[in-house]
From TrEMBL:
The keyword Transferase applies. Keywords: Transferase. InterPro entries: Citrate_synth-like_lrg_a-sub, Citrate_synth-like_sm_a-sub, Citrate_synthase, Citrate_synthase_AS, Citrate_synthase_bac-typ, Citrate_synthase_sf. SUPFAM superfamilies: Citrate synthase. One of its GO terms (cellular component) is cytosol. Belongs to the citrate synthase family. It comes from the Bacteria. It comes from Liquorilactobacillus satsumensis DSM 16230 = JCM 12392. The active site is at 249, 300. This is Citrate synthase. Pfam families: Citrate_synt. GO terms for biological process: carbohydrate metabolic process; tricarboxylic acid cycle. One of its GO terms (molecular function) is citrate synthase activity. It catalyses: oxaloacetate + acetyl-CoA + H2O = citrate + CoA + H(+).
Length: 368
């Protein structure tokens, strides 16, 4: 029996959270193109409860999230020590996520508090690495506005907050992707939330998953700084058998619906922040990749430029992905816990058979 590589096309479980059926992304039945206009808090509530909140529920939920965007003193002390070290920010986030499982009331912490802690952890790592002081939340701002403020030190305009809210929504969940499935496997053992998130962060760190956005910007930077023609860059990479980051998707053969929305945001932010040259490089690259290989940009392609336009270093891009995807990770952990079923697949053994230790030892002694 031939097994599909990477479980491609294999249905391993059912979910009510999100779907990519027919190459259309939906959250709890709502098309992502429509939810891009919702508030971040609405989408978090939707993914966790599979229904949209009432006006009163969303006000209470928003207050609950913002009021808990505070880190324990022990976590801050550790961050001040390790966040300036040369390790990759995702390694720091992995360690800090695990630490949160020891400096909080693990048995009683619920998803709203955990999401709030993850958001402010990412913001704190960014501030410390930039040698900037940590900031406190503004209770008059929403989750997205506070997240931007805590990262950059600037209160965002309504337009920027709206655009970044869309970015966070588009990254919130994506069915059984590698990090989400990892979280579900750990959740199936009934491990605590922080253990599940730590495992998910480890999976997201890889360049074939969340780490791709960092690699995309490295590519754009190389093309810009060396004055390369994007088409010639592609051909040179192909000759060297190197992957062009930010293109292609296992599910979306005719284009990632998230990328289409992100392209508009990247273009607007690039124009406003003096980064139009990067966006032009992206446009030329995308046109040539479609013409040459029939490959479309994926979610990582335009996200990298959006994060750069916010004034952030490329090393922290994957952490921002983790902050957004924590919403989906928590949704899937809750759903998996409710299933009360240990994930333990079988494998097909293809190694040698009919080997006998004692017989081999006797044979060895006979030749000695």
């Amino acid at each position: 029996m031939e097994c599909p590589r990477g479980l491609a096309g294999v249905v391993v479980d059912q979910t009510k959270i999100s779907s990519t059926a027919g190459a259309h992304l939906t959250y709890a039945g709502y098309p992502i193109e429509e939810l891009a206009h919702a508030s971040f808090e609405e989408v978090v509530f939707l993914l966790w409860h599979t229904r949209l909140p009432s006006e009163n529920e969303i006000a209470v939920f928003r207050h609950q999230l913002v009021s808990q965007m505070v880190l324990p003193a022990e976590t801050v002390r550790l961050l001040l020590y390790v966040a300036k070290e040369p390790q990759h920010p995702m390694s720091i986030l992995r360690t800090t996520t695990s630490l949160l499982g020891t400096t909080n009331d693990v048995d009683h912490d619920e998803p709203p508090k955990i999401l709030a802690k993850m958001l402010i952890t990412v913001a704190a790592i960014i501030r410390i690495r930039a040698n900037e002081p940590l900031l406190e939340v503004d209770p008059h701002l929403g989750v997205v506005e506070n997240f931007l403020y805590l990262m950059t030190g600037k209160r965002p305009s309504k337009e920027l907050a709206r655009m970044f809210s869309t970015v966070m929504i588009l990254h919130a969940d994506h069915e059984f992707n590698a990090s989400t499935f990892t979280a579900r496997v750990v959740a199936s053992t009934f491990a605590d939330y922080y253990s599940c998130l730590t495992a998910a962060v480890c999976a997201l760190k890889g360049p074939l998953h969340g780490g791709a956005n960092e690699r995309v910007f490295e590519m754009l930077l190389e093309i810009k700084e060396q004055g390369l023609d994007p088409r010639e860059f592609v051909e040179d990479q192909v000759k060297q058998k190197r992957k062009i980051m930010g293109f292609g998707h296992r599910i979306y053969k005719n284009g990632d619906p998230r990328a289409a929305i992100l392209k508009q945001i990247a273009g607007k932010l690039a124009a406003k922040t003096g980064n139009s040259e990067y966006f032009e490089i992206q446009r030329q690259l995308a046109d040539y990749m479609l013409q040459r290989f029939n490959l479309h940009p994926n979610v990582d392609y335009y996200t990298s430029l959006i994060y750069h336009c916010l004034g952030l270093d490329k090393e922290v891009f994957t952490m921002l992905f983790a902050a957004c995807r924590t919403v989906g990770w928590l949704a899937h952990v809750m759903e998996q816990r409710n299933e009360n079923c240990l994930i333990r697949p079988n494998s097909e053994y293809v190694g040698p058979t009919d080997r006998h230790y004692l017989g081999e030892q006797i044979q060895k002694r006979g030749h000695a």
